[in-house]
Design brief:
Alpha-Beta Plaits; six-stranded parallel beta sheet; 431 residues; five-stranded parallel beta sheet; 18 helices; Rossmann fold
Length: 431
């Protein structure tokens, strides 16, 4: 059976609610702009939380809009810039699944189609409402015979379509959950990249903070190797807010704590520490998922460099207390996770890598002993891997080998690379 992906538009495919944005555009300059916008937003939220019917919400919002075709042109330009980041970077998924990736929305085709079509989503697979216009092009209503204009509209539509296959629903609102409640879809994924509604998330089969997460848990081809929302970044001590914002905006799961609590030791992937914060070496040894540590001060005497090298943990610190390092250090941490860059590292060889294009980046961290590269390249040769580029640098006891390869290879090869003697850590990146 085919898999079908039923994807919402507002606050899912895009970061915003389109009718709310249309209200801002159409009411620009009006003294009533803010009050009317808030009322439209209220209607939106009540429906999304299941507190009023969708039709009641839709009728209320349309009556307040005072919009025309010119405003729609402006809205479309705006929405194209507001596509959710994780959807935008996974264009290839839609192109590969053009027949089964559908947009099903209570929004309107007039603005949805121009936004999603460039991603390879077919016009016939866009299901949404349509506006009614008067002779001057003003929006005066909507086609109320469309099932999507009614309460439970997505359920009614899919019953009419009688799709033969396994259906997966992705959305942020109550109307999306209704598909699961009806039994028409196999699993419902509450999408929270832009907004999290408790009334929806608590009923979902899975909460997906990004489209990358949805693709990952379903083992589907994706633009990045591992969802960043699954990488726990702990911030401890006196760290400026700008540092947390940089890491949050990059998609990492950020938590701010006063100390390195034991319950986080086994899951932490990134640590950013304020000056004078010390970490127990025994905790550090047990932090098996930890990949990078940033320190806003001199790390010496506060974090064991020896343990970090043993564990393959990259350190970036700020021993000169430069003012801008509250931004520089978290960016270096993100660059290491995203690309493998170790420039300005305290304990690793400094390497700035080229951008990755149509390849997988295999990162091998190992003890700096003779013969490692020969073993690595033997594995590649035996598996007939096409190598695009390769880099090796060493520093003291650490060897850092980067190999960009063609994405087509036997996954068994990865186990072979991990089993090479003196391997400390192995990672795969693709983006």
């Amino acid at each position: 059976m085919k898999n079908y992906y039923i994807i919402d538009f507002d606050s899912t495919f895009t970061q915003v609610e389109a009718l709310d944005e249309l209200a801002r555009i159409s009411l620009e300059g009006s003294p009533e702009q803010e009050s009317v916008y808030r009322e439209i937003e209220r209607y939106t939220n009540l429906a999304m939380e299941g507190k009023i019917s969708f039709r009641e919400s839709l009728t209320g919002r349309i009556s307040l809009l005072k919009a025309n075709r010119t405003h729609l042109d402006q809205l479309i330009k705006h929405l194209k810039k507001k596509v959710s980041k994780s959807f935008d970077r996974n264009r290839a998924f839609f192109q590969a699944n053009a027949d089964t990736a559908w947009i099903v929305s209570g929004g309107f085709k007039e603005f949805i189609t121009p936004v999603v079509a460039p991603y390879g989503i077919k016009t016939e697979n866009i299901y949404a409402n349509t506006f009614l216009f008067d002779d001057e092009g003003n929006i005066v209503g909507y086609d109320d015979t469309n099932p999507l204009s009614d309460e439970g509209g997505k359920v009614k539509l899919l019953k009419e379509l009688n799709v033969q296959g396994r259906l997966f629903g992705i959305g942020d609102g109550y109307s999306d959950f209704q598909l699961k409640e009806s039994g028409l879809i196999e699993r419902f994924y509450a999408f929270t990249e832009n907004i999290a509604r408790q009334s929806v998330t608590e009923k979902a089969d899975h909460v997906t903070p990004s489209f990358d997460e949805f693709l990952y848990v379903n083992d589907l081809p994706r633009a990045i190797s591992y969802p960043k929302n699954r990488i726990l970044c702990l911030i401890i001590g006196n760290v400026p807010n700008v540092a947390a914002e940089i890491l949050k905006n990059d998609g990492f799961s950020v938590r701010i704590k006063d100390s390195f609590e034991e319950k986080y030791v086994k899951d932490v992937g990134m640590l950013l520490l304020g000056d004078n914060v010390s970490i127990d070496p025994n905790q550090l040894r047990r932090a098996n998922k930890l990949k990078v540590l940033g320190y806003l001060g001199d790390v010496k005497g506060n974090v064991s460099r020896t343990v970090c090298c043993e564990k393959g943990v990259v350190i970036f610190d700020d021993k000169r207390h430069k003012k801008r390092n509250a931004e520089f250090i978290p960016r270096r941490m993100a660059d290491f996770i995203n690309h493998g860059d170790t420039y300005m590292s305290r304990n690793f060889p400094a390497m700035t890598l080229p951008k990755l294009k149509h390849a997988h980046r295999l990162i091998h961290i190992h003890k700096n002993v003779p013969g490692i590269m020969a073993q690595i390249n033997k594995v590649y040769a035996e598996n007939e891997v096409n190598i695009f580029s390769q880099f090796l640098m060493t520093k003291d006891e650490i060897g850092y080998a980067i190999t960009d390869v063609d994405a087509q290879y036997d996954k068994e090869m990865l186990k072979q690379l991990k089993q090479i003697d003196n391997t400390i850590k192995f990672r795969i990146l693709y983006k």
